[in-house]
Amino acid sequence: MRRPSKDPSQKLSGDSQRLASLAQAHAQASSRLEERGWERQIDTLIEKLLKNDRQAALDATLDHLFRTDPDTYDTLIESAEAASESCTIEQDGKYFDALLIAVPMLAWTRFSIASGPISADVLLTLSAHLYAHVLAADTKLAMAPNLFAIDQLPHTHAEAFSLTRHLAHAALTGNSLRPLGNLPETAPFLADTRYFVAVVAAPAGAPLFRWQTPDAQGDITNERQQALSQWRAQAMPTIERMLPGCGVELLLPEAYYVACREADKQIRPASIRAAVHYLTHTLSVAPSGLSAIIGGFAEESIDGRIDEYRISFTLHQQRDVVYGVVWPLFGEEDAEEDLRDAMAFHAINAEPSVTQADYANPLEEIFSLLGQCGIVDVKFHSEQFPMESCDDCGAPLYCDREAELVHAEMPEDAPQTTERFH
């Protein structure tokens, strides 16, 4: 869930007030027809703001509703995402629907995870696999010739709005695209997400994905799974060559925001597994020779809500934190977790064979993952910690066994193993 601004006293502009009023009217609508009427007005105003790069006005409205009307906030954030990741455009007298999609992948390694420009041959190969296994017939695709890290993707709705229209024009005209420049450097992580970003366009009202076609109406879930299986089978050899020295898992290409959120969720377990693998090999210890300390962190103390868990790793029952993993929470996970249920789960499920969907809350999943990795000494601090970072390098601080926030640092004699793999 998006966090509110730290300046709740800011005054709303006229457009921000109008947008908040329209969103509240939509929430109070008594019929589908009335809802659609309000939606059209909301969409028109949001598009006006984004076209003129007035992200601040949209953010002010969202911040206001986040504090005062959470249900209406949810409605407006959906509208903002839809307006920035999709559009209807005219080309040669015909109208087309265009959607910004993300093609996510999970990667983990002891080396660096690559990002940056991709060659025309690779772009052509990946596009062919998307056409063959994911996209509906009669669609047009334009893919940005970059492999993106999460911090290189559009950060605002206005940036996504601009990219969507840029790629949509390329999809319909067939114009070639240049790699995006001036992208920020990526921080090295043992497990991280990577993305291709593209726009798929189709005649207005026509399907964009294979599972939307009439032939798929019998079992849409199965069609989605088949599309993912075929995409993984065909695209994996190409992507593995782009990410040497990495374990890779491909996720389903979908609408931009949904795909990015799903990748953010799915990378969390991989981050813990990669951390344990890295520490055991680098420090020459068994998993049982490590301890884990879990703390709940929040930017603001609002109704006990936790924004993320941070997992500290130490040598067995020692105080110095040698490594840390951040486990962010999303959407419905933002509520305060029931510690007693999580601890009971941990006590009676030493080696549970369950899927992510079977966990009652994130703590259960974290406890289970640590146990599966072989770490038996796990400490949880029930107090809530502020989301503090190092003033010098910006790295998150982690709680040690004594509940003090510290910098995670490997021992001085530990070998450096995050060099780029060739």
List the helices and strands and how they pair.
Layout: H1 14-27, H2 32-51, H3 55-68, H4 70-85, E1 86-91, E2 94-108, E3 116-117, H5 120-133, E4 140-143, E5 146-149, H6 157-173, E6 191-203, H7 220-242, E7 247-250, E8 254-255, H8 256-283, E9 290-298, E10 308-315, E11 323-328, H9 339-348, H10 362-372, E12 377-386, E13 398-399, E14 405-406
Parallel strand pairs: 9-12
Antiparallel strand pairs: 1-2, 2-6, 2-7, 2-8, 3-5, 4-6, 5-6, 9-10, 10-11, 13-14
Task: Explain how this protein is built.
With 422 residues, the protein is an alpha+beta fold. It has three domains: 71 residues, no CATH class; 173 residues, no CATH class; 122 residues, no CATH class. 40% of the residues lie in helices and 21% in strands. The chain contains ten helices and 14 strands. Strand 10 and strand 11 form a beta hairpin.
Number of strands: 14
**Proportion of residues in extended strands:** 15-25%
Based on Cα principal axes, name the global outline.
globular
Main sheet specs? 8 strands, antiparallel
Kindly report the oligomeric state of this protein.
single chain
| Helix content estimate | 25-40%
Low-confidence stretches: 335-357, 418-422
Mean pLDDT: 89
State the main characteristics.
14 strands; alpha+beta; four-stranded mixed beta sheet; disordered C terminus; 422 residues; 3 domains; eight-stranded antiparallel beta sheet
Quick summary:
This protein has 422 residues and is of the alpha+beta class.
